[in-house]
Amino acid sequence: MISDAIEDEEKWLAEGIAGIQHNAFYMHRALDSNNLREALKYSAQLLSELRTSRLSPHKYYDLYMRAFDELRRLEMFFKDEDKHGCSVVDLYELVQHAGNILPRLYLLCTVGSVYIKSKEAPAKDVLKDLVEMCRGVQHPLRGLFLRSYLAQVSRDKLPDIGSEYEGDGDTVNDAVEFVLQNFAEMNKLWVRMQHQGPIMVKDKLEKERNELRDLVGKNLHVLSQIEGVDLEMYKDTVLPRVLEQVVNCKDELAQYYLMDCIIQVFPDEYHLQTLEILLGACPQLQPTVDVKTVLSQLMERLSNYAASSPEVLPEFLHVEAFTKLSSAIGKVIAAQVDMPIVGAITLYVSLLTFTLRVHPDRLDYVDQVLGACVKKLSGKAKLEDSKATKQVVALLSAPLEKYSDIVTALTLSNYPRVMDHLDNGTNKIMAMVIIQSIMKNNTRVSTAEKVEVLFELIKGLIKDLDGTPMHELDEEDFKEEQNSVARLIHMLYNDDPEEMLKIICTVRKHIMTGGSTRLPFTVPPLVFSALQLVRRLQGQDGDVAGEEDPATPKKIFQLLNQTIESLSSVPSPELALRLYLQCAEAANDCDVEPVAYEFFTQAFVLYEEEVADSKAQVTAIHLIIGTLQKMNVFGVENRDTLTHKATGYSAKLLKKPDQCRAVYACSHLFWVDDQDGIKDGERVLLCLKRSLRIANAAQQMANVTRGSSGPVTLFVEILNKYLYFFEKGNPQVTSAAIQGLVELIRTEMQNDTRTTDPASDAFFASTLRYIEFQKQKGGAMGEKYDPIK
Amino acid sequence: MVLVLAIGDLHIPHRAPDLPAKFKSMLVPGKIQHIICTGNLCIKEVHDYLKSLCPSLHITRGEYDEDARYPETKTLTIGQFKLGLCHGHQVVPWGDLDSLAMLQRQLDVDILVSGHTHQFKAYKHEAGVVINPGSATGAYSSITYDVNPSFVLMDIDSLRVVVYVYELIDGEVKVDKIDFKKTATATTHSAH
Question: Which GO terms describe its biological process (chain A) (predicted)?
Fold first, then answer.
């Protein structure tokens, strides 16, 4: 059916074109023979093709353009009075005898153009006449094209300032008046299309109307090009008249297009100065008009204007642009009760973008926009609409991007309030955005107060907000979140120890609300942050005078103890053990023996009671031994207790090889190289002998269970340890003992039942090489080693 | 010429938020043939990042590593050199050169790479060369005060290895290099 209609239209168009061509042919003949009468007759017939009602705008345009071309030739003929012998005044009268009104008016406009050019009458009179005469055609499509023709031919003949048509009584006011009138009439015709004739499908109608809109809009263009239209005239005459037309036509399509047109066509400088008038029209528009896009366009243009010409910025403040826009938006939102929440928020996003670009230093403005948003959101349940949520996230992200220093955003009092209205999931996303902004810009947050605000903002990550069941969270995502929080903790820093301690306490307060799932992530960074503070305080000697509650290592150690203790709720004994040992080392460096002892106790208790996995025990005991080996703060008694415990546990490890290694590691507890005092050669030897016994037992076990003795690696390791203490000058470790051990290993290796192990063979070989090397060194070392073969 | 990155003890996120920006801009994918990492990354994100720099990634376990499956020690051969890798918290006393030499003999390697102390070291002893790339993030260490972020790049070319150490000192990256040559039986070195 539709294709039939299109086919028909094609046919009619073809017919129309043929008619035009036919009459044009004769018209040209008449022109060539200077026959005015004939020319008029055929031109009128030609123009009659435009009387059709059967074409869509698109096709009608095609026809119109052909007629237009012909009229140009006719105009040239009219101009040349010698050719046709008729004065322009008479011509003007003559053409009015044409039979039908449409051809009559096209001809009249054409003659009118010549008339004005001849200057035999004031431009304004002719223009006024024409614009009123055109009222005779009330059919929307035909009328629009006719008036469009009028606009086209009159374009260069307006009595503008500096134009040749300006004169007494002919002023730019007249030009403006003419264009405004034409515009008003065209708009009326255009709107009338909505209600015309046969009932058409809404979409088709809208499409057709859209095809014609530029005809109407062109008038605004012309107005903007008129030189004489300065700011004052725009403000007093042009804008009010145009807006009057826009508001009164009460047509959604027209209003939207024309508002947009006004904004695009006239200079930004004018918009800035007429903000109130322009914005005043907005609430008067039809409720279905997409005002927010209009306002967004306006704000965008003004933002760009400000960005490109910074010298204009004071003007923005002078006209109170922000206040006006802000209240206009408020009015629009209030007037359009049915506007969905996403619409309101989009408006605020545009306003915020404007504010950030034009008045970035006015944090009060930024806060105001956020505040208006809060007001809009309050009283309602948390946002569920995902589009609205996206807009809120955009709203909150904008200040972060603009002020790369997060601290600025933290001072906006309404910022957290907006975040409160997000659903839990989005709240967390926003929190991550905030953290990423800090990490990217390498910002330091340097006071406890700001840290407090920050942690309030990201509370969705710090603890369970109401209503979030834990199982919903994806494990990977959860880890990522918590690791981000951990990294964030390192960005919280102040050189001043007092403030730093306050920061640490604030962070601690917050992470303690996180529950057992979060503590393993958040406690370690806090602990190390605190340990770094301890180290800094170490450097400072004596009491800090004048401070009532100075930050001291002791205080921090208390804090650390309580913090690490909380890991028992997880439970995370291995992590806690490591952290206790770190604290013990720090306490050692601060020379506080009881504190260091306490930390060791805690570590041992965890080892005894909580670390059950044998592999974990091996690592843990080596950490304990390694830490203890470096301790120099302990008195004899305490040290003895701890080393006794360490060696005891070493010997009780599950697997014999592990026992062996741990025990010979303990030998180092009794010999510390860089300090006088702990060089107990006897106990070193005792350890080494004990580990040798264990190695032997291991060999025998292997014999029994597997029918062959195991690798000699353990023996070679112990041999190396003997060499170590031998070199250090332990009198108990003699060259004879070493020789004996070497023999033992050689014997073991020659044992028939032994499975060959290239690794331990190579180890032994390189150990022997080392012995040789030392011998070759000569001097004291060489002498020492000489007896060993 | 084979480029090997030796790096470790990043302690992200326990002790440091991230690699220094200047290091990050230097470490680009496609330039390095192997990465050997002493451990204590500590999280998977860091593992993935290192893997993105170079697919041939070798890691040993540090005591804070999230992934418990990394081995305690590792050995690999690159060109003419045998390399050994171990975090170092297992070797008591920590940082003791002679004890590390024993581990080197035990693993039977020309170059031993180990960490834990967060202090860059490169020295030669009878059994070979020991290298400690330090901490790439300058993380807190109970053993070493004033840690500067550092990592090591080894250029292995038949019997010669040039060790470049990159250290971030007061915001500037400083580079130093040391030459080691391997002969049939032992390695000799010359420092620059």
Answer: intracellular protein transport; retrograde transport, endosome to Golgi
